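TICKET #2291
ISSUE: user wants both folds in one file
ATTACHMENT 1:
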Amino acid sequence: MNNKSHPIAALIVAAGSGTRFGDLATPKQYAPLLGRPVLRRAFDSFYTHPAIGAVCIVIQPEHRALCEAALHGIPPENILIVDGGAARQQSVLNGLEALAASGSAPPEHVLIHDAARPCLSAALIGRVCDALLSGAAAAIPALPVTDTVKKRTSPDAPVETKSRDGLYTVQTPQGFALSDIIALHRKYAAETLTDDAALLERDGHSPAFVAGERSNIKITYPEDLAAAEGIIAAAHGDIRTGKGYDVHRLVAPLHDMHRLVIGGIHIPHDKALEGHSDADVALHALTDALLGTICDGDIGMHFSPKDARWKDADSAMFLEHAAGLVAAQGGIITHADLTVICETPKIGPHRDAMRERIAALLQLPVSRISVKATTTEGLGFTGRGEGIAAEAVVTVRLNFGQTEPLSTAALSISKETRKAV
């Protein structure tokens, strides 16, 4: 499993049964939320964060197929999926033990998060990580109680109004030194506590508080899904449109493996596109369009044609890299529209396969991917069959309030690309 050489791992607890969520066929962690499962939204927040290395997910064994479907498009070697136990504490311990045993250098710290909290921000993850790296033994997000608190032990008992002074509600992710939290889970395995920080308190210690977020809600009841949709949509009110254009020359195949690739699909043809990579003109245009939405240069800045690493490279990794940069800024790709311009080959017979391939790469429903083709009526270099061009337009929703986007330097290249090289 790729740990990006970072000392912090994430453990996502998705082994709950969700009994309060209602009698639904799909457990709440796999329920759709603006086109993606709840679990996937929580997962993406950690997977794309530059401070997080390994990501472990604890699930019910019978939910493995649901989990794998939710994580479609993520290389299996980049995820650690562990079976949970009968109770949350046992599930967490199973995940912690798996992280401690993974790789030659286990992470020093771990962030434990409930899959049912899909609205967490990159900034919140960063605050918890910063506290750990600054020396805190444990760090948890907390919010001061603002409502009046009353206590009643039974329907007929008198009502008591409690002081709010010093009262906080806490959230996940909660961060710990990995060795410490494993020891505490083993030590207090027979006790039932409501969160992982309670283990620290049970042992006579206190965690550091970092600022929580009102939007970091936990999905418990069906109506919470609607609230989460509103939070995500409201946070992504900055709607950006990016445009990309690319051209490659058609040439006789240069070697036995030199084939025509458009939209991630090999198309039978007597010529192939010339380029440093596989010269997939369609995916290059889409990559530039995505980079345009976050004002992060162009494909040549990220994957120089002078760099030997990208010789004959699959352009799918370029598109996934750009999508990863968008995700790292909290962006949501909502639509992609691609036009391929050529006389031959005919794109129509391959349109559906292209849409499916691009949808898989961008982790979007096929219904949000448009592929069109046109000719120039015999005019120009495309009309003469000398090359193929492609235009792409993509729509992305970003957090309008984000003032410090994660830079290309911080994220470097995506996990899939880093693994490939």
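ATTACHMENT 2:
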Amino acid sequence: MAEPNAKPPTSTSPWAWARVLYAVLALTVFAFPGGLVDWLDDRNADGWLSAPLALARGVDAASTALGVKQIGQRLRGWFAAAIGGEDA
């Protein structure tokens, strides 16, 4: 029986890079949801961002419930101390 000529995806594939990019963005949003909520809230003067803002607030609540938000806060504090800034 002959094997099919299927090639595995390479690391130079644009789809592989897109998956990595979106995975990192999703992890960032889940680890630092407060920043996203603040950013969306600042730009929601016209109400166009109500749905994404509600979603970000839900992610913020889930992140807090799971304990991921506290890890993000510690990392942000560590980074601020490393660069000599203040953690807001």
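RESOLUTION: both attachments delivered.
EXTRA DETAIL ON ATTACHMENT 2: The CA atoms of residues 52 and 68 lie 20 Å apart.
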